[in-house]
Amino acid sequence: MLKKESEKEIFEVFFRRKPANILVALRQNTKNRYGSILAKEVDCTYSHAVKILQEMEKANLVEFVKQGRIKMIKLTDNGNRIAEHIEKIQTLL
User: Fold this and answer.
1) Mean pLDDT of the chain, nearest integer
2) What CA–CA distance (Å, rounded) separates 11 from 35?
3) Is residue 29 left, alpha or beta, with left meaning phi > 0 and alpha meaning psi from -120 to 50?
4) What DSSP designation does 2 have?
5) Number of domains in the chain
6) pTM of the predicted model, to two decimals?
7) At a CB cut-off of 8 Å and minimum separation 6, what does 29 contact?
8) Which residues are paired to 63 by β-bridges?
């Protein structure tokens, strides 16, 4: 049975290096983070990180919390579970 197009797209997002690293980085540091710091940590441009994060927000894996002028990024419960599994896969490889 074929998956819906949106499910296929989000699956492809996670099996690329940068998106997986973004989720793991968010999980490893429990403090809320913002985009430019996160982009530096995973070695990608700010605009690329924002694009990935927007897709993750649509999939309910991260949420943006506005604090003053800054948008902080926080994993949802589902995002945290997925990040945990990605970490396990990384240790197996």
Assistant:
1) 84
2) 22
3) beta
4) P
5) 1
6) 0.79
7) none
8) 74
